[in-house]
Amino acid sequence: MENAVDALKIGFAMLVFVMALSIAIYALGEARETSDIVIAQTDPMKYVEYTSGEGLERVRTVGLETIIPSLYKYYKEDYMVAFQDRHGNPYVIYKSQTNENLWANTYKNLWNSNYDPATDLRFNGNHGKDIACFDVEEETARREPWTASADVHFKRNLDAIISGETFTYPDGSGRAYNYGSSAQVGPGGLIQKLQNKQFDEYIGESTFEIFNEYSQMMTKKTKRVIIYVVK
After folding, report:
1. What's the rounded Cα separation, in Å, for the pair 224 and 78?
2. Orientation angle between helical segments 64-71 and 151-163, nearest 10 degrees
3. Residue 156 is inside which H or E element, if any?
4. Which DSSP string corresponds to 9-61?
5. Of 105, 154, 224, 230, which sits most exposed with the smallest number of CB within 10 A?
């Protein structure tokens, strides 16, 4: 009789354990679903399906609150963020201070050639120092100071552009980009420059030809492109 009671106790304990485990698994599933919903609402770009080929698809109308998160991921996820005015011309964000003589030859040749902004997805205009896009490869080709080291310098540079502060070169030279000056982004930085504007967001993929200076060979690379066209 005592053994039977013990067996019932063990059986009941196992039943409670299984029920508790089932409830825990269900709760974790609900938490994951809720988390995905929250992420989708705060970061819609993560869930956008990118078009293939050379086509760019209009996704939505956005403001500064959407553009800033996009910028903070361009160097980590290796996509381009570009800006255009309503006529399709480059919408200049800042001016490069790098020495053109030190630019990669392919980059210099691109801006010395006849360039059509309607067909060429390099958005910096007829002069490569008027910068209208954020792209790691272009910035590296221009020898921008934040590209020579860790990702932390990309972030520091973005912080300065967005808030209109100063980015000091990490090489100890004392040189700096003063983004708050009228010659750069302007007082208040990108927040002040874009805060009252609306943009049509276009997302897609495009294939670029890239020249490797070490191998001396041209290669093709397909990357994501996000274009913000001011309304």
Report:
1. 8
2. 160
3. helix 151-163
4. HHHHHHHHHHHHHHHHHHHHHHHHHHHHHHHHHH-GGGGPPPPPTT-EEEEEE
5. 105
d(CA 132, CA 142): 14
> 166-205 burial, b for 16+ CB within 10 Å, e for fewer?
ebbbeeeeeeebbbbeeebbeeebbebbbeeeebbbbbbb
pLDDT given for residue 206 in this prediction: 74
State how far the Cα of 20 lies from the Cα of 3, in Å rounded to an integer: 26
Write down the pLDDT at residue 75.
93
| Sign of the alpha-carbon torsion through 88, 93, 98, 99 | positive
CA atoms within 13 A on the CB side of 228: 25
* CA–CA dist 89, 112 (Å, integer): 17
Per-residue pLDDT tens for 72-114?
999 999 898 999 888 888 899 999 999 888 887 767 766 555 5
**pLDDT tens for each residue of 11-50:** 566 666 656 666 656 555 544 444 443 333 333 333 333 3
Please give the C-alpha separations between residue 136 and each of 96, 97, 180, 230, in angstroms, as whole numbers.
14, 16, 23, 23
> Both tokens of residue 42?
């705060």
